[in-house]
Design brief:
- The protein has two domains: 2-123 and 249-317, Bordetella uptake gene, domain 1 (D-Maltodextrin-Binding Protein, domain 2, 3-Layer(aba) Sandwich), CATH 3.40.190; 125-245, D-Maltodextrin-Binding Protein, domain 2 (3-Layer(aba) Sandwich), CATH 3.40.190.10.
- Helix 6 (162-174) links the parallel strand 6 (153-156) and strand 7 (179-182).
- The protein has eleven helices and eleven strands.
- By secondary structure, it is an alpha/beta fold.
- The protein is 42% helix and 19% strand.
Length: 323
């Protein structure tokens, strides 16, 4: 009986180690926040909520998404930077925010005020039109724009974002001038296209996947090196001669640089558990993005590499603001 009791006790302790929150009893002691720089209902908002839902069971505390759109992500970033560095608030953002967006505006903080925690996905993006648009191909759009310089209107979800900068580079190389119409988030940019206020839109695939599948919208180009298996007939930027418009967009969590190292490490362990959870991957694939994990080193290298590639591009466009 004693041996059996000891055996049961050992099993209970081991089982408890696997089911308890990974960080321990002292942390977290209250709900955690994921600050999303985009409006509710956008694809990036939906992916953040998937992380929050899966993460709640690993933290043993609720994980909530707080939307703070505007200034291409700077408002959300400032919210995290000015918060207490106790590990309760993280920015959900793109590595392109650090490598490109922050080079196009002056902000009251430094890029390294935030440090990467983990990458969760790669955003798929492209140029899209309504199904009733006269532009059946990207060449059709270019031909029209050349005859009507400065008249073609297109929407996007914020200046300085990849969805803004990629079309600018493409249109510049194509020799056309256009009018870009920025919005606070993807839903607004998407609505402008559906409402006929713009001729095209630069959007993430995940934000409009249902409309594309139903035939209400169609892609003219994908900002990618390879075609999407869901859209086998849509050409890529590389195929159309715009290889410079294939910079990847990785999305992950970033935290205050002064967060205690022990909490940073523990958060990193939990982030990997969230990513490995089947519910997370199914959710991200359902939204329409591509799951892709990377730790802090992966994101630091991605930021460094993209900054090197993007700086000449931003200077050429006259958008580089860093002194």
């Amino acid at each position: 009986m004693r041996r059996k009791a000891v055996h049961v006790l050992v099993l209970s302790v081991v089982f408890g180690l696997f089911t308890m929150p990974v960080i321990g009893s002292d942390y977290p002691a209250k709900p955690l926040e994921i600050v999303c720089p985009w409006t509710a209902g956008s694809s990036t908002d939906l992916s953040a909520r998937i992380i929050a839902e899966v993460g709640s069971k690993y933290f043993g505390q609720p994980v909530v998404v707080v939307n703070k759109p505007g200034a291409a992500g700077s408002i959300a970033a400032a919210d995290v930077i000015t918060s207490s560095p106790e590990g309760y608030k993280a920015l959900w953002g793109s590595h392109a925010f650090f490598s490109m967006t922050m080079m196009t505006q002056k902000v009251p903080f430094k890029p390294d005020d935030l440090v990467p925690l983990a990458n969760f996905l790669e955003l798929r993006q492209g140029l899209v039109v309504r199904s009733d648009s006269p532009f059946k191909t990207f060449d059709d759009l270019v031909a029209y724009a050349k005859k009507h310089q400065g008249q073609l209107k297109w929407s996007h979800s914020g200046r300085g974002l990849v969805l803004h900068l990629m079309p600018l580079m493409i249109f510049k190389k194509a020799g056309i001038t256009t009018i870009d119409v920025p919005y606070k988030g993807t839903p607004e940019a998407f609505a402008a296209l559906l409402g006929g206020h713009v001729d095209a839109a630069s959007l993430s695939y995940a934000s409009i996947v249902d409309m594309v599948k139903s035939g209400k919208l169609r892609f003219l180009m994908l900002y990618s090196e390879k075609r999407f298996k869901e859209q086998p007939n849509v050409p890529t930027a590389v195929e159309l001669g715009f290889g410079e418009a294939t910079l990847p967009t990785y999305f992950g969590l970033y935290i205050h640089k002064d967060t205690p190292e022990s909490i940073q490490k523990a958060l990193g362990v939990t982030a990997k558990k969230i990513y490995d959870d089947p519910a997370f991957k199914k959710g991200i694939e359902r939204v329409g993005d591509e799951p892709r994990y990377g730790g802090p080193d992966f994101l630091r290298e991605a930021i460094k590499k993209q900054e090197k590639m993007a700086t000449p591009m931003l200077k050429e466009l006259g958008l580089y603001q860093v002194k």
